[in-house]
Structures are given as C-alpha cells and as structure tokens.
Design goal:
Layout (H helix, E strand, L loop, with lengths): L1 E3 L9 E4 L5 H9 L4 E4 L4 E4 L4 H12 L4 E4 L2 H13 L3 H8 L3 E4 L2 H9 L13 H11 L5 E5 L10 H10 L3 E5 L2 E4 L5 H12 L4 E4 L2 H13 L3 H10 L2 E4 L2 H8 L13 H15 L3 E3 L2 E5 L3 E4 L2 E4 L2 H12 L7 H7 L8 H14 L5 E4 L3 E4 L3 H6 L3
Parallel strand pairs: 2-3, 2-10, 5-6, 5-7, 7-8, 10-11
Antiparallel strand pairs: 1-15, 4-9, 12-13, 13-14, 14-15, 16-17
Helix pairs in contact: 2-4, 3-4, 3-5, 8-10, 9-11, 13-14, 13-15
C-alpha cells in the first residue's frame, strides 16, 4: 500500500503505547495523525482499599494532622479519599488535612484536592516533584511533620523514595502515604512483543505516561535478558517520549535521553511526538531517490511503502550500514526464521526492489553481497 507521507505528520511511523488508562483516547490521537500503533499496557493499578498500612496511616493522620501534606497525583489522592470513605474516615481525614498546609505537585493533584473540599497553598507550574522539594527545603523542614502521598510501588527505577529520604535527612518527620501500588499485567506477551519490536527496530517511538510504566518495561526486559539491548535501542534508534519529567526520570538516570512536551497532557504528548518524529527521521539519498527507513515501512520520495516482514528485515540491515556491502549470510540472518539457503536472500532482494518501486536503490556487488546505492556525496560523508 502506498500512502503520501504528507497526508499527516506521522504517516509511516509506528508508535508504541504503554498506557493502560486512556489508552484508546491516546491511540486515536496518534492514529488521526497517521501513525500505526502497537499497544502493550505496562501496569495494572491496584487500589489499596483493603490495605492495612494505608488504613493505619490514614487513622494516624486523622488523629494527628501533619504540618504539611503533599499531593503528587490526582488518581492517587482521589483513591486515598475513596479508601478513607470506605473505612468511615473521610470526614476525619478531610478535617485533619484542612489544618495542614497542602501542596500539589500538578494540576491533576490540585483538582483532586479541591474536589475533596480542600485547597492547596501552592503548586509549581513545572509540575515537578523536584520543585516542590526545593521549596520545602528552602523554607526549612526540620521538626515538621510532613505527609507525602506516594505515586505507587517503589522499584530500583522509580525516583519516588528520594523525595521522602531527602526530607528525612533535612530533619522532617515524614509520613509516607502508600495510596496505590502497581503490578505488571499477568499476561506479559504484549510487553514482550513490544520490547522485541524496540530491540529490532520495529518501532520508531515508544510512549510512557507514568514512571511505573517505565519501571515495568525495564523490569520485564531485565527478566528476559534484554535490558542492555533495550537501553541501547532507546539511546540510538527508538525515540522514548514521556508525558513529563517525572515519567522520564528512570530512563534519564540510565543515560537514555527522552523527549517531553511542555505540558504533561496526553494531547500535548501526541502533538509533541508528531513534531519530533518527522524532524528526527533519517533520510538517505540512494539510487536517485530519497529514503527514510522507519519501524514498519520505508518512505520513498515522500511515499510510504508498507513492506512485508522479510523485506523490512533486509531493508533495516542494509540501512544500518548505508553504502557498505552487506554479505548474503548477514542478510540471510535478518530474514524471519533465518535459514541456510542464500538463494532466499536473492529472492528477498528482488521482492524488496519491487516493493520499493525503485530497483536502483539496492546495488548488487558481485560475489560479495548487496548495498544501498548511496549518492557520492553521502558516501563521502560516511567515510566510504
């Protein structure tokens, strides 16, 4: 199928969605811009309505109001209120927090605080926990009792515990409020497929809307022995797009450069991806044509060419070393299932040329293999 690259900004790009909540809405935003979407919900949120630790903390706060309370997420703060209502403690909790100085990390937390009949004293425009922490430390927290609503469960890749630890080191009595926790989905097949697609270059971009979703993917990649390959792909080929800096933090800490919109919203993230992916797309001049090799297709002179898996595997391998001769055994290994008969490579190359509609793009090098027929100026630029 041939589609104009200019029909929409994301035509020809394949984007991974790890969100569980509002995934349909986000997918629609991307698909309207022309993207193909792969879904793999990374986490399942588990409300702690029956959790004894949350109930204990809630009763403690209701009986002894903190000096300061920090709301970090809208869903978490609402969940806390709902759990308290289930225990018959909602009025006592709201009354106690009404005596506290309330800080909200962002507008969603602010909205949840106001919906509970409370009001926040301050919320940073950056929606950053780091700015909330800086403000508290600048004011001085020694001897103060501070309740912090946690984002979710903690892992080695989540920055959440640092917030509480820094406050403790500064002399505060910190009450951690474990409003909800998360777990990976029981069926990890979609996540395994997404990790494989990232590692093999089948995705152009993967999106994250929460730090736990990032942590869940990293955990699964570590369990399956693909963590280093995943991180390499995210550093070099696949664009990691995060809804905000809190979500991006686990990847940034591992040396993966992410991209985020100015505002932490789904719509803003979709628009940001639509701006960034075309700008970062590779472009090669070969055989008199302009090529852009993407996760599931090749754009030839502005026309999106959808290729079958075998042709796509060959094209990715050739484009990985533009202008260099790639041997038949190497190309054979890139075909689905591999094989031992190099005749399969010749057949695959013939089909690839036909699918591209530009046979001169791929040059046969007798007795050696094949290469992209790069224009002289580009060969010089890559040192060939």
């Amino acid at each position: 199928m041939t589609v104009s690259e200019f029909d929409s900004p994301l035509s020809g790009f394949t984007i991974g969605i790890t969100a569980a909540r509002r995934a349909d809405e986000f997918a629609t935003l991307l698909e309207r811009r022309g993207a193909a979407v792969m879904r793999a919900p990374a986490i399942r949120i588990i409300p702690l309505v029956d959790d004894s630790e949350l109930e204990r903390v809630t009763r403690d706060i209701a009986a002894n109001p903190p000096d300061i309370a920090v709301g970090t997420t809208g869903i978490g703060f609402r969940g806390w209120m709902e759990a308290a209502d289930g225990w018959g403690l909602a009025d006592e909790l709201v009354a106690a927090l009404g005596k506290s100085r309330m800080l909200a990390r962002g507008p969603k937390a602010k909205g949840a605080i106001r919906a509970a009949g409370l009001s926040e004293e301050w919320s940073p425009e950056s929606e950053s926990s780091a700015e909330v922490l800086d403000r508290l430390l600048a004011e001085g927290v020694e001897g103060l009792r501070i309740a912090v609503q946690l984002h979710g469960a903690t892992t080695e890749w989540e920055p959440i515990p640092d917030f509480c630890e820094v406050l403790k080191e500064a002399g505060a009595d910190v009450i951690a409020v474990p409003v909800y926790r998360w777990t990976p989905l029981q069926d990890q097949t979609p996540m395994d497929r997404m990790i494989e697609a990232i590692v093999t270059g089948g995705l152009d971009c993967v999106t994250f809307t929460s730090a736990p979703a990032v942590a869940s993917m990293l955990m699964r990649a570590k369990e399956t022995g693909l963590l280093e390959l995943l991180l390499r792909a995210l550093r070099e080929r696949v664009l990691p797009a995060c809804v905000g800096p809190i979500t991006a933090a686990p990847l940034e800490d591992l040396g993966v450069r992410t991209t985020t919109p100015a505002r932490a919203r789904l719509g803003a993230l979709a628009r940001h991806v639509a701006e960034e992916l075309p700008r970062r797309a590779n472009r090669l001049n070969a055989g008199g044509h302009v090529l852009s090799v993407r996760g599931g297709c090749v754009v030839v002179d502005g026309q999106v060419k959808q290729l079958p898996p075998a042709a796509m595997g060959l094209m990715r391998t050739l484009a990985h070393q533009p202008g260099r001769v790639v041997s038949r055994p190497t190309l054979l290994a890139s075909l689905p299932g591999g094989g031992e008969d190099c005749h399969a490579v010749e057949t695959g190359i013939a089909r690839l040329r036909a699918a591209l509609g530009a046979p001169k793009v791929i040059q046969t090098v007798v007795k050696r293999g094949y290469r992209l027929a790069m224009d002289p100026a580009e060969l010089e630029a890559v040192g060939l």
